[in-house]
């Protein structure tokens, strides 16, 4: 996977546990960020110098003169996410926009949520856009992919998790007493939670809309809900 942009590159070089996962660095001839170049050299990552046009072809994102070729993101096994009695998770029910996933990853990392669960099918996966949007937070967040979201929710409930869904027709999110061991579900951008997932929820939370629009961007709604869940 190619990862571009100074902040992303710097975050990976600083926090990547295994520097051998970084295959090489593509760097513009005019790139002069000494701190990043020093990190690349310290990690013993091979440098390939290229013209800006060549970097533009490699990455359609704003690469800012530096691109890392890294090993594909490794997902976490679900069992490693459910390790204590105060565990808090975010479940994304077939989210499709990589920008939303990247933004949610940032919020999850900043808030201290234990991890994210994604379905394998009909869902966005970790790619360069997700990495770019997360601004380097990705490598500090555990993400599990599961084949069947409904069975996963049942397993979580058997392990003592309370499941909180988000929907337009529910209880004011500020009035819910969020259990210590809980999983928050954010539905897809166009359709919200699927029917079976919604039926599995212990609580349905609603963010009141007082303006003329009747819904929020998925990552904005996730941010509001995550911090309320932590506050309570």
Explain the overall architecture.
- This protein has 232 residues and is α/β, with parallel strands linked by helices.
- The chain has two domains: 2-70, Ribosomal protein L30/S12 (60s Ribosomal Protein L30, Chain: A, 2-Layer Sandwich); 78-231, SPOUT methyltransferase, trefoil knot domain (Alpha/beta knot, 3-Layer(aba) Sandwich), CATH 3.40.1280.10.
- 33% of the residues lie in helices and 24% in strands.
- It is built from eight helices and ten strands.
- Helix 4 (98-111) packs across helix 5 and helix 4 (98-111) runs parallel beside helix 8 (218-231).
- The mean pLDDT is 88.
Q: Can I get a quick summary?
A:
The protein is built from 8 helices and 10 strands. The protein has 232 residues and is an alpha/beta fold.
